Each structure stands twice: as structure tokens, then as C-alpha cells.
Amino acid sequence: MQYLRDVLSDVWTAMNPSEPSPAYLFKFLMAAIMVFIAAYLIGRGLGLP
Length: 49
What we know:
Layout: H1 2-15, H2 22-45
Keywords: Membrane, Transmembrane, Transmembrane helix
């Protein structure tokens, strides 16, 4: 059980660095902008203000 916990901890650390890289931040920002644009276009298509 200790081994499994250590492996999961290592995987978590690898997936979530203490400080995100600029590339990660750029991808996150682009995804947020795309979601906003999609919501805006869907709202316009439905005739919402």
C-alpha cells in the first residue's frame, strides 16, 4: 500500500508542477478564451442578449 501511495504521489507531482510553465499558462488561457467565444456565439445563435 505504501508503494502505491508513493507511485500516485510521484504521478501527481509530475502532473502538477509547483510553478506552471509559460506554455501551460498559454494553453489554459487559450482554452478559456475559446470557451468564452463559444458561449458567446451560442448565445447569439439562440437570440439571447
